[in-house]
């Protein structure tokens, strides 16, 4: 089954099917604005990207990273959109719809990530795994089939939960974004249970199955989006929306290149170690840098490297368009581009010399402890709520105090699964600083 751009660019809103966009403001621009003005997006300003925050004012945090990904994604989409017009695949003017969808999805791509970077995801998942293994308390009451989605906690699934359920119109479409934007957001269109049931060769054979991206609680919402976009359905999962590859490419371009610039700014890598890979990716430009500071040279090469990577990913999308539309393409655009070798070397450098720096390692160790302290401090409230028959008014005084002190949102909590989601919603939504202060309060330190 080949996908159709007419379906893929669906402006139909989740939770508000009858809505019609105003003439001067497209629904995809509205999607972008709803994301930007949301509290979860705003909190990204105090969430770690890669390098620990607060040590340096010029280090990227997740909000700035998201804005930069949106900028690169828009550029990619406009250039690909023009190619699609030339090929007769979309009508003139629809390149703006393409760009709006991609930019909105890019802005949201990290909205579900917890504090302390990707190590925060591992900390949350590790804590749940320990709880399930111990057979203690509320976690022991959860249906075993539901455990994997908590044990391998996934920020992408949490992001879809925020967009489709939690923010704005709670339990009624969430932000009520278009099917197209939600489809472009969904990097892993499968639940944890459905993924686990697939043969290993199937999981390894398709990039969209590398992880899960939908909690069971939002499976029906995702099915509505996928069907609205005309995505091919498989046994328990869907093929990726073609625009996912553009969103993914924008993210890959930004974090790989900008992590190098941040490493130089933070003093984790010397000038020569950063200069050479950026110079190679930028195409070995012959530019006069006399009178420029080292930081200015690195910034110039960063900009040129991004431009070179954008060109490579546009070419890769166009060359693989038929496979992408058939749902059989299973690589990233970076991997399929003529810049793949340069990016592989940058990723190897990051693994060897950025992700292992003492500052980052200390953050991961302390962040794990902070997250576990918060989870341990809040879990007794939920267990007490269970003993009270899920009646918030019957909570013991101390637990009621904790609810008030933390503004803990217990709406819809009526059983083990919803209780654990409320716990994960709370801790994953924290900023780094708020997580630290909450851990201190709950632990009495």
UniProtKB/TrEMBL annotation:
Domain HD per the UniProt entry, residue ranges: 62-256
Residue ranges of coiled coil: none
SUPFAM superfamilies reported in the protein's UniProt record: HD-domain/PDEase-like
Pfam family, one: HD
Any one GO biological process: dGTP catabolic process
Domain of life: Bacteria
Entries under PROSITE patterns matching the protein: HD (PS51831)
GO molecular function: dGTPase activity
Keywords recorded for this protein, A-Z: Hydrolase
InterPro entries (alphabetical): dGTP_triP_hydro_central_sf, dGTP_triphosphohydrolase_C, dGTPase, dGTPase-like, HD/PDEase_dom, HD_domain
NCBIfam families: dGTP_triPase
Protein name: dGTPase
Lineage summary: Bacteria, Pseudomonadati, Pseudomonadota, Alphaproteobacteria, Rhodobacterales
């Amino acid at each position: 089954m080949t996908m159709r751009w007419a379906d893929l660019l669906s402006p139909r809103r989740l939770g508000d099917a009858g809505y019609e966009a105003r003439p001067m403001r497209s629904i995809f621009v509205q999607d972008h604005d709803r994301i930007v003005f949301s509290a979860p997006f705003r909190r990204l300003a105090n969430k770690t990207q890669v390098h620990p925050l607060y040590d340096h004012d010029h280090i990227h945090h997740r909000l700035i990273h998201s804005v930069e990904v949106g900028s690169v994604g828009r550029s990619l989409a406009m250039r690909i959109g023009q190619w699609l017009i030339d090929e007769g695949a979309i009508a003139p003017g629809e390149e703006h719809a393409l760009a709006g969808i991609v930019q909105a999805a890019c802005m949201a791509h990290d909205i579900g990530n917890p504090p302390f970077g990707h190590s925060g995801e591992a900390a949350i998942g590790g804590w749940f795994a320990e709880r399930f293994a111990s057979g203690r308390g509320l976690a022991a009451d959860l249906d075993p089939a539901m455990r994997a989605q908590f044990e391998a906690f996934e920020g992408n699934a949490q992001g879809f939960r925020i967009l489709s359920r939690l923010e704005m119109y709670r339990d009624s479409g969430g932000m009520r974004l278009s099917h197209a934007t939600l489809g472009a957001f969904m990097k892993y269109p499968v639940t944890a249970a459905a993924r686990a049931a697939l043969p290993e060769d199937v999981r390894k054979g398709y990039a969209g199955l590398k992880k899960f991206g939908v909690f069971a609680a939002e499976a029906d919402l995702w099915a509505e989006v996928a069907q609205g976009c005309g995505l091919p359905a498989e046994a328990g999962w869907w093929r990726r929306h073609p625009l996912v590859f553009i969103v993914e490419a924008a993210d890959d371009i930004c974090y790989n290149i900008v992590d190098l610039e941040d490493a130089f700014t933070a003093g984790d890598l010397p000038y020569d170690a950063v200069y050479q890979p950026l110079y190679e990716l930028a195409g070995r430009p012959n530019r006069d840098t006399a009178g420029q500071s080292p930081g200015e040279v690195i910034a110039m090469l960063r900009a040129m490297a991004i431009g070179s990577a954008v060109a490579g990913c546009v070419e890769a999308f166009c060359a693989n368009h038929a496979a992408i539309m058939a749902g059989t393409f299973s690589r990233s655009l970076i991997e399929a581009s003529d810049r793949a070798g340069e990016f592989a070397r940058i990723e190897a450098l990051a693994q060897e010399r950025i992700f292992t720096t003492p500052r980052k390692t200390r953050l991961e160790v302390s962040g794990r402890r902070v997250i576990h302290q918060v989870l341990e401090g809040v879990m007794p409230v939920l267990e007490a709520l269970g003993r009270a028959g899920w009646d918030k008014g019957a909570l013991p005084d101390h637990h009621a105090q904790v609810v008030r002190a933390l503004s803990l949102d217990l709406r819809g909590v009526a059983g083990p699964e919803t209780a654990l989601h409320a716990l994960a919603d709370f801790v994953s939504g924290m900023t780094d600083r708020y997580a630290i202060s909450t851990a201190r309060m709950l632990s009495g330190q």
